[in-house]
Specification:
Layout lengths: L1 E4 L8 E9 L6 H14 L4 E7 L6 H11 L3 E5 L6 H11 L2 E6 L11 H9 L5 E5 L7 H18 L11 E4 H4 L12 H7 L5 E5 L19 H14 L3 H29 L9 H28 L17
Parallel strand pairs: 2-3, 2-5, 3-4, 6-8
Antiparallel strand pairs: 1-4, 5-7, 6-7
């Protein structure tokens, strides 16, 4: 990993940190930085721009180096290889010092002119997170179809009423980005992570989506694996500290069903002298449900033991303190 860091006092909380993951965007970077600088200066914000080069193979890093001599607001990190957008965001979040953290893509499809309104919603209206909604999109069908599917699925599973979970243009209160962990493909579900961390005031703002000016989209149908991350987030958010509530309850129910089936067959054999019980499909169903129920209960029990022995079992998100260091 390589680092560019112009001089900043880390103790000073800036108005805005702008986080930009980058992968092969050499053509757009000078224009993007000029656009950001113009918008921030017009609104008199103190700000920093944290660029994370996620293993670009073009001249993106050389251009970032050059831009950092022109704009002293730039901080930049270069990964030795491509680790993914989630890793880039997590690294930048840890380095941010802004009161409001704004994420945006480097391809000029997100407009920096949306930032002042997003900042206002966080600071003046008290939102923890505001997600952009690209109501009118200029993306290829290979991106729009998976996006619609995952937005509907995520709304259903999370209960968060957003239209565009994967919009790159989002604004966060600084407490949010410093209290969530992002890995895998979980950058698509940051609002869900924020909700399960206790940040429930999540809003949405319609933003202008610009047509791609340079290069091509890095995303498509390969994003289908993201559904596994959604299942993981939902499970960990609801049952991460109490797995017995899921596995134990489900295992007990299934075991009870199997027990009733086999009890019925046993009574039939003993009192009604029915023969050939072992040849009936329901007999094997009863045995299978007993085994599956026992295994689920044992899984929950073992998971509970592991959690109780973890050093992080009593770590909780704290929003404020009075009289306690």
């Amino acid at each position: 990993m390589f680092l560019i860091c112009n001089k900043f006092n880390a103790n000073i909380l800036l108005d805005i940190s702008i986080v930009i993951p980058i992968l092969n965007e050499e053509e757009s970077l000078p224009e993007l930085m000029a656009w950001i600088s113009r918008t921030m200066d017009e609104n008199e914000f103190s700000y920093e721009v944290i660029m994370v080069d996620d293993g670009s193979t073009d001249a993106s890093w050389e251009i970032i180096r050059s831009l950092s001599t022109e704009y002293n607001q730039i901080k930049a990190i270069k990964f030795r290889r491509n680790f993914g957008k989630a890793a880039a965001l997590d690294t930048a979040f840890n380095a941010s010092t802004g009161n409001v953290v704004v994420t945006m893509d480097a391809d000029l499809q997100d407009s920096p002119e949306e930032i002042p309104a997003l900042h206002k919603m966080i600071i003046q209206e008290g939102y923890d997170l505001v997600s952009g909604w690209k109501k009118k999109r200029y993306d290829p069908i290979s991106k729009t179809i998976p996006t619609k599917f995952y937005n509907a699925l995520t709304r259903k599973m999370s209960g968060i009423k957003l239209h565009d979970f994967n919009c790159g243009l989002k604004a966060y209160h600084h407490d949010v980005v410093h209290n969530i962990d992002i890995f895998g493909e979980m950058h698509r579900y940051i609002p869900v992570l924020a909700k399960f961390a206790g940040f429930e005031k999540i809003g949405e703002k319609v933003v202008q989506h610009q047509a791609r000016k340079y290069g091509k989209s890095k995303y498509g149908l390969g994003r289908a694996k993201g559904v596994l991350d959604l299942l993981s987030i939902t499970f960990m958010g609801r049952f991460g500290k109490k797995p017995m509530h899921l596995f134990g309850g489900l295992g007990t129910l299934i075991f009870f069903i199997g027990f009733i089936i086999l009890l019925y067959l046993s009574i039939s054999k003993l009192f009604w002298n029915q023969i050939g019980i072992q040849d009936r499909p329901i007999f094997y169903l009863g045995i299978v449900t007993l085994i599956v129920g026992s295994q689920l209960f044992l899984t929950g029990f073992l998971a509970e033991i592991l959690i109780r022995g973890s050093d992080r079992k009593n770590e909780y998100q704290i929003s404020d303190r009075i009289g306690i260091n």
